[in-house]
Amino acid sequence: METSNLMTGAARIVMPGLIALGCISFSVSAQHAPQHHGKAGAPAAKPAELGTTAAVDRQGRLWLASKESTPDGDYVVLRDSPDMGQTWSVPKRLQREPESAISADGENRPKLAFGSKDEIYVSYTKPLAKPHTAEIRFIRSTDGGQSFSAPIVVHANRDVITHRFESMTVDREGRIYVAWIDKRDLEAARTRNRKYAGAALYYAVSGDGGATFRGDYKIADHSCECCRIALALRPDGKPVAMWRHVFEPNARDHALIELTPDGKLPALNRATFEDWRVDACPHHGPALAYAADGTRHQTWFNVKGEEGGVFYASADPSGVLQTPVRLGSAQAQHADVAVHGKSIALAWKQFDGKSTAILAKVSDDGGKTWRNVELARTEGGSDHPRLVAADAGIYLIWRTRNEGVRSIAAMKGS
């Protein structure tokens, strides 16, 4: 794939791009972990994979899903907190035997959700031997985390290709939805000598609490290759997916669609309109949340003209998008959004040359007014910010190399 468009356009937005083969990506700022080098001529040590998911169950208990690496392989581990992160249980390994590998970087990390009867559901990406290939796996507990099932593969397609960057949610009826980035259609196009932009999105559904999945249902052709998929429930309990899509003739904006249990989908809608023309994936997916009145809240990264940035906008229940607001400086990255009642919190990473801060905009009146706050800061490597909503308020959950997992109230509950 040609990289000249990326280097001449996006590279001068913030800093020179870093190009990787396969899933092409670039660093849009220097805010990632500072590079620490050993002896002259020696390769830099591989940074720890800090990717962690946080979620709150029906009892208000906070849970974390992350990765533990051992000399024998990798495990997904869970820990929980009864007091929103003030104290934690001992991490529990979910697999009986280690996996050869588990993805746990910022955009591609274990996911966590809960069933209506306190079931615990965990999904994760297991890389395969061939570069950029993987399968999506799933584990469940039906006894509140006392025991866990053996892992199963979610998708019916077992080709050694990309099945990566999964996301998961549970609808009001208790059905589990797992969506992922998939390259089966790209591979098919290559065998026919045809062009195919990006990858595709697929999903599978379980109606029996994760015992089995049905699918694979295609969401759309021509998604971006390595950006996370945002899944959120509307007030009516139906799941909605938002992702970076490749619109004709090569605009990497975002799309939105309601997922259905039978795979019969409505037409997708365009959710952002920066019209970024680039032949690469920025590893920078969106975030999505809904208020009780149906207002949609979304954050995303994109480039408009020659200036990149993180943006936020809301859309009324009819879908009319308000004017996007830029968050932070040109160094802002990986924003998240959470809504609880009239409270809205937006949080993002921002590097100032010495340390990385989590900055936020918060509103307690449904977005009519906002105030700016700094929630946390670190001088080492860090995960992306995660916002979780609970009766106790909206909390930032942030895992850093130096400080570990931090739970910080962005907005206290009433």
Task: Report what the structure shows.
By secondary structure, the chain is mainly beta. It has one domain: Neuraminidase, CATH 2.120.10. Helices cover 3% and strands 44% of the residues. It is built from 2 helices and 27 strands. It has helices spanning 4-8, 184-191, and strands at 53-56, 62-70, 73-81, 92-93, 111-114, 120-127, 134-141, 152-153, 163-170, 176-182, 199-206, 214-223, 230-233, 239-247, 251-258, 269-270, 287-290, 296-304, 307-315, 325-327, 332-340, 343-351, 356-363, 371-378, 386-390, 393-400, 404-412. The strands form 7 sheets. It has a 4-stranded antiparallel beta sheet, with no helix packed on it. A 4-stranded antiparallel beta sheet has the order 5-6-7-8, with no helix packed on it. Strands 9-10-11-12 form a 4-stranded antiparallel beta sheet, covered by helices on one side. A hairpin with a 2-residue loop joins strand 21 and strand 22. The protein is globular. The chain starts with a helix and ends with a strand. Residues 1-45 have low confidence and may be disordered.
